[in-house]
Amino acid sequence: LDIVEERINAPRMSERPGLLGSAILGQRITDFHDVRAVIGEAGHNWLARDKSETVERARVLLVEHEAFSRELVRSYLEMAGHQVTEAPGTAEAVEKLTSGDFDLAAVSLDLPEQGAFRLLGEIRNLPGKDSTPVLALGRARSAIEAARTEENGGAHFDGFEEKFHHAAVLRWIAAMLGGTDEAEPQVELSQAALLEA
């Protein structure tokens, strides 16, 4: 098994189920597989929920400019039963919010030029959409803590979580759908690996 540490661009996206895309690593073509999707296609029940557990499905607007990250997040949200609409930038997100109905928006803190904060401000000023819950998704705990300090008394996100910590993100969504008054679910932020896209 070869281990290669290298910065990559977002891989070429694939239409094949279970294959996120391909990129050149170490002068070789490397495929990126979506393990959760592969397990789902195989029909195993390893990821199945308890039959007694009731999960409310949400209409989620996912705002993420990096194709690789967007595909990963969309994959685990849909595996959990949520309906996901994608927007690669703030302009597309505002357009979709204006014309559609969503239970919440999941917005990447990595959007260029403070895009997440600009989008949050626009959402809070959209008639009829200003109360839409907005979950901020960061790459790692350090990015999330930095974003918390940048809110400065202006518009506030309804929650913060690491985008690749799928279990915690799903708990946030469940809390938002349930309208709980908790400041945030009692989960420890994971030290997710920084994925360079």
Short overview:
With 197 residues, the protein is of the alpha/beta class. The chain is built from 6 helices and 8 strands, in the order E-E-E-H-E-H-E-H-E-H-E-H-E-H.
Could you describe the 3D structure shown?
This protein is α/β, with parallel strands linked by helices and 197 residues long. It is 32% helix and 20% strand. Strands 5-4-6-7-8 form a five-stranded parallel beta sheet, sandwiched between helices. Helix 3 (90-99) runs parallel beside helix 4. It is globular and about 50 Å long. The two termini are 23 Å apart. The model is unreliable at 50-54 and 185-197 (pLDDT under 50).
List the helices and strands and how they pair.
Blueprint: E1 12-13, E2 19-25, E3 28-33, H1 35-42, E4 59-63, H2 67-79, E5 83-87, H3 90-99, E6 104-108, H4 115-124, E7 134-138, H5 141-150, E8 159-162, H6 166-178
Parallel strand pairs: 4-5, 4-6, 6-7, 7-8
Antiparallel strand pairs: 1-2, 2-3
Helix pairs in contact: 3-4
Percent helix range: 25-40%
Helix segment tally: 6
Q: What's the helix-strand series?
A: EEEHEHEHEHEHEH
Terminal CA distance reads: 23 Å
Strand content: 15-25%
Structural class: alpha/beta
Number of strands: 8
Shape: globular
Overall mean pLDDT stands at: 76
Going across the major beta sheet, what is the strand order?
Answer: 5-4-6-7-8
Poorly predicted spans? 50-54, 185-197
| Radius of gyration computed on alpha carbons | 17 Å
Largest sheet: 5 strands, parallel
